[in-house]
Amino acid sequence: MGSILAPNAVFDTGFNVDGNIVAKEVTIGSENHRWDWMMPAYPVVPNLQPEPEPQPKPTPNSDPEQPNFFPPASKDSDEP
Questions:
Q1: E strand intervals along the chain
Q2: N or C: the chain end with fewer CB closer than 10 Å?
Q3: Is-contact 43 58, C-beta < 8 A?
Q4: Which InterPro entries does the record match to this protein (predicted)?
């Protein structure tokens, strides 16, 4: 397993070869499992999406039309 880079050599073998071979002449008398480099069919560009803007925190509802189920206790109340 691996790669052979010998562009001016003659590569001749009777054994299985797993990997890339670059040579002037290549003769393989058995199996060859190539790992050819494949250029992408289209340019690979990173996905550059802007960061989402943070949403403001919701504010309490101060609309008088909406009921307040937990009104604040009044300070002049006789209850403890």
A1: 2-13, 17-28, 32-33
A2: C
A3: no
A4: Choice_anch_A (IPR026588)
